[in-house]
Amino acid sequence: MPAKGAETVTVTDRVPGTSDLQQVAVSVRAVSRSYASRRGRVAALEDVWLHVSPGEVVAVVGPSGCGKTTLLELICGLQAPDCGTVEAGPAALMPQQDLLLPWASVIDNAGLALRAAGMSRPAARKVVAPWLERFGLAEFKSARPAALSGGMRQRVSFLRTLLSGKPVLALDEPFAALDAITRAEMQGWFGHVLAAQPRTVVLVTHDVEEAVVLADRVAVMAPRPGRMIAEIDVDLPRPRRRTDASVATLRAQALRALGMQL
Ligand SMILES: Nc1ncnc2c1ncn2[C@@H]1O[C@H](COP(=O)(O)OP(=O)(O)O)[C@@H](O)[C@H]1O
Ligand SMILES: [Mg+2]
User: Fold this and answer.
1) Nearest one of 170, 166, 129, 122 to 12, comparing CA atoms
2) Which of 37, 68, 70 to mutate to test the pocket of ligand 1 (most atoms within 8 A of CB)?
3) For the segment 129-158, what is each residue's pLDDT rounded down to a tens digit?
4) What domains are there in the chain, each with its CATH number?
5) 200 DSSP assignment
6) What is the pLDDT of residue 14?
7) What one-character-per-residue DSSP string does 95-109 give?
8) Among 127, 131, 250, 248, which Cα is nearest to 186's?
9) How far is the CA of 80 from the centre of ligand 2 (A)?
10) Considering the entire predicted model, what is its pTM?
11) 180 class by beta-carbon count within 10 Å (0-12 exposed, 13-18 middle, 19+ buried)
């Protein structure tokens, strides 16, 4: 749980200007996607099915190269499937590599989606400022991305995605570059924000424990070709802790699905 600011969590965790945020589903049906390579075509995804109900959080776990990033880009409409269909509402992608603008300050990078939606710079900064405080970035608000650690850049990128006001969040390893303490803090904030204002979330992570702690359901993928091999319902009350016995049980179930010897 976050040490700082946790006691101030209120309905203001809603993202401003999104009170009428419509809940939408994500539906991926029979999707295949391959890429051209020097050695012919690489099947990144084959016959992938995934349904995420409105307001549901689904974590996607699987080894490197099983097509997780491809799946998120399909959901966000950044690429098209070779066959099958993808339906999703407006989706905000938090990419695996943060795409912060090198010339813009932290506060303006975090508010980029608000500016793109037509908000003035002063208004966007006003919205972003209290969130920088919560995310431990306040003293860096005028810094450029080059002056930040990898974990801080990731926090700015996460904040930008959160503040986009899109009903669907597609998060590609959002907490991977964070140290354990900051990761637990960010996961805590993620939970608070979703509790205050549910979104439909597809969360890609290689951390099976994180998947069980945060998600309503865990979808397990296997590589070559990338496909869904298991789905695990996480029917546990929140907040959950990594140390909970029930979390450990589901984690073991997911790892077995991934073929890990326990
Ligand atoms: N633009 C691309 N061109 C060629 N091959 C690609 C491209 N993007 C991904 N791939 C290949 O597709 C497979 C899945 O990639 P990716 O979706 O990035 O997986 P993951 O995010 O799970 O690591 C990998 O074998 C990768 O090398
Ligand atoms: Mg990836």
Assistant:
1) 129
2) 70
3) 999 998 889 999 999 999 999 889 999 999
4) 24-90+169-262 (3.40.50.300), 102-165 (no CATH)
5) E
6) 62
7) -SS----TTS-HHHH
8) 131
9) 17
10) 0.90
11) exposed
